[in-house]
Amino acid sequence: MKSFVMNMGEVVRTIDVETDVPDFSSLMLNRTSLNALAKAGFIKPSPVQAQAIPFGMLGLGSSFRVQNFL
Q1: Which EC numbers does the record give (predicted)?
Q2: Pick from 50, 41, 43: which is nearest to 20 by CA?
Q3: Domain ranges within the chain, ordered by starting residue
Q4: Over the chain (70 residues), what is each successive 10-residue block's mean pLDDT?
Q5: CB of 49 closer than 8 Å to CB of 4
Q6: pTM exceeds cut of 0.70
């Protein structure tokens, strides 16, 4: 199974993303969603996904800005 969580070795992160990202099950997603994520090869959410998913589950509109230096 292909994994979408990349092993990038040593990565420098700014202070705003220096958090321990939980796995998807800690975000209280339903079993169908968790199974679909696992089947697609997703292991754990990105920092922005971990922050955005709870807002989406509450039905709140949100906008997130992410820096990408890849």
Answers
A1: 3.6.4.13
A2: 50
A3: 18-57
A4: 52 60 87 94 85 83 68
A5: no
A6: no
